[in-house]
Amino acid sequence: MMFRVHQLIAINKVIWYRMPRTLGGVVFVMVAYSMMMYAQQAGYSTRTLAKFEINDIVFEGNTTYPSSFLINLIQSRASELSLQRRMVRYLAEQVSENPATPRHLENALSDIQRDITDELRFVDPALVAGDTMAISSYYRQNGFHRVGVQYQIRVNRTTRRNTLVFHITENERSSIDTVVHYGLDNLPEDLRITIANARARIKKGMPFQQALIEQLNGYILRFLRNNGYYEAKYAPFVVSHFPAERTDSVTTVFIPGKRYRIAEVVYQDSSVEQRPVALYVRQEFVEVRAGQWYNADAIARSINSLYSLGKFEFVAIDALPVTERDSLLTLRVATRVRRSQDFGAGLVANQLVNTQFLNAGAEVSYNNNNMFGSGQLFSPFGRILLLDITRIFEQGFQATQYEWQIGLNYTQPFWERFFDRRVGVDGQIQYSQQRLSLLSPLLLETFSARLSFPVALSPFNLFSSMLVQIGVENQRPRQYASSLEDALNSAGGDPALEQLVVQQFYPYSVLDTITNIQRKFITNQMFGITLIGDKRDHPFSPRTGHFISTAVEVNGVIGASRFMRGQFTYLSFSPIGNRSVLAWKIRAGHIQPFAADIGYIPFDRHFFSGGTNSIRAFGSRQLRASVSPEDLRRLSDARLVGEVVGNGSIIEASIELRLSLRDATPYDSFFEKQISRSGLVLFLDCGNAFNSFLSPAGQYNALNINTIVRNMAIAGGIGYRFDTAVGPFRIDFATRVYDPTVPTNQWITERPLSFLMQFGLQHAF
């Protein structure tokens, strides 16, 4: 429906006489007019309006469960009025008070409101009746057997608002008297003891909760199926209520069936044009063996392990038909190999583990996923990357730091078993040139060779995998002399700044002497062990679980570097309601040189603080601690020549409240789908990097508790998230709550409020 000319003239006349003739009034009229035109052109379909619009929903009489929880049990919702509808409604109310308002104008405004009714919610008697039953059902499932729930529409003619009210009469709550399971008496004694211990967790006198009973029955069923009872099942449990005692007795009948052993495991591959992965490799990633009891969880883990290889497009493990007299099962492992060879070219983005820098660039590669028939990956590549791209947005293109790489990756998913643990091999040979962001380009040339041995540990331990690494590097600076000369000239003859420049270039001076003068080939050798435990329910946007990583590496058996490096990271995720998650992080690391002279420590082993994945109110690499006022000034002046020298220690912690704006439904419009993919985050970061390599050598490890606490920067802010296929895209606005990098006005209350915008791909942790 479009406005007619006489309708537009009538609207303008009425608004002109009812609104003050001021600039603000004119602006309001223009905005309101634009809103109405947009509403008319939106094309929403007209719906038959119910008698009562739902403006509010309240619960009365509920003492056990808060209203914020009960609202999630029902489907009825209150109207959500946008600015567009509020403007149109306001105009309609104003013109209706003028007796001279043409009737066709009131009808036009009514038509507009009718055409944008998607935001309104009206009373649906069938839906509200279902909500009443849902509330009653939930209460009864939790021991309130005599609960009463009724609803009414409360109309307030003064405010013109309708409230949907649910009246709840909870009455008394029943407690558990007995929990009985039939059909388990003939199980082996060790299984009966385990089940009895699980059943003992539900004690007499506990409030009745159906969820606890279902959880216990589910645990028993899973336990049976993991111990040979392939056909185990149970009938729906029966609750016997005794009103006089206000108690419940729960009875469940289990039917375990026969106990089955695995007679044999048969492997089948349906690949036609592709070479199958060798049988012994598939066997190593399947946990079930002939002679074992049937184990449903082991089968599920085996399927996940085979998929994790990245070699198969289809994996299934099922039991072949059995006869009535047979107590043996034959398992079939069916696979189909994906295409093994491909060429790739495109944009890439990654984040270095040690530095947490966000890098982006382009890559070309060739991949062969089954080079020698045992699942080996052979992948030569070439790429060019812009390193730490957030610095470009913060400081401009003069801070650009890039690296180009050529190399070869080789992976063998299974190499050998040690101490009954599966061990693989990952190898990489790489040559690169990296431009360090100084006033004059200083190129860091690196040739490296590394071997990694991933070890699969028990999934039930704190750490589920281990990575053993060895590597050697040859690094040499190029254009060192000219870069140092330009940096000294930029100091402008200031002796203090010249000393700082020399100190910042010192690590590369050591490297230049070793490689270009002494002609030593190996500049660094590394041996490291990393333990990882990943219990998150999702790799990008987890709601529950935790991630823990601890890594130690020793450098110095051969080569120029002499130090030990350790790092610890812990992430935790806990759901709060249906659409909120509380996440927090702790990260700590330290580098301990083996000599009083720190010497050369490779750039990618330095610790940096500040940036999109760190303390978000500070620029990338710009946060480092000072031990004295003089040191504070030195570290501030150090930005003259760029942040190419890091720190020997780091302590960081963050906490985030992640809020999803709405749940997705199958009936969502395009706009609603985008809203359901969006979220808000409230966050608080604290931490700093200590033992700056820019400070005098005598100050390394000269830390105490007071120095650490005084230098702990605090930042807070709000962020926006939008889910994508590779994780959420995020924009964060952070402000400095406590800033230890300035001598005065350190607290947020002592200076004007300001925000720093950070962006990234995937959550900050």
Structure, briefly:
With 765 residues, the chain is α+β, with helices and mostly antiparallel strands. The strands form four sheets. The chain has a 16-stranded antiparallel beta sheet with strand order 11-12-13-14-15-16-17-18-19-20-21-22-23-24-25-26.
Secondary-structure blueprint of this entry?
Blueprint: H1 5-18, H2 23-41, E1 56-60, H3 67-70, H4 83-96, H5 103-115, H6 125-141, E2 148-156, E3 161-169, E4 175-182, H7 189-199, H8 210-225, E5 233-234, E6 238-242, E7 247-255, E8 261-269, H9 279-284, H10 296-308, E9 312-319, E10 328-337, E11 341-351, E12 358-368, E13 377-386, H11 390-395, E14 402-418, E15 421-436, E16 442-456, E17 465-478, H12 480-490, H13 495-517, E18 524-534, E19 545-555, E20 563-576, E21 580-593, H14 629-637, E22 647-660, H15 670-676, E23 678-692, H16 705-710, E24 713-722, E25 729-738, E26 756-761
Parallel strand pairs: 1-3, 4-7, 8-10
Antiparallel strand pairs: 2-3, 5-7, 6-7, 9-10, 11-12, 12-13, 13-14, 14-15, 15-16, 16-17, 17-18, 18-19, 19-20, 20-21, 21-22, 22-23, 23-24, 24-25, 25-26
Helix pairs in contact: 2-4, 4-5, 7-8, 12-13
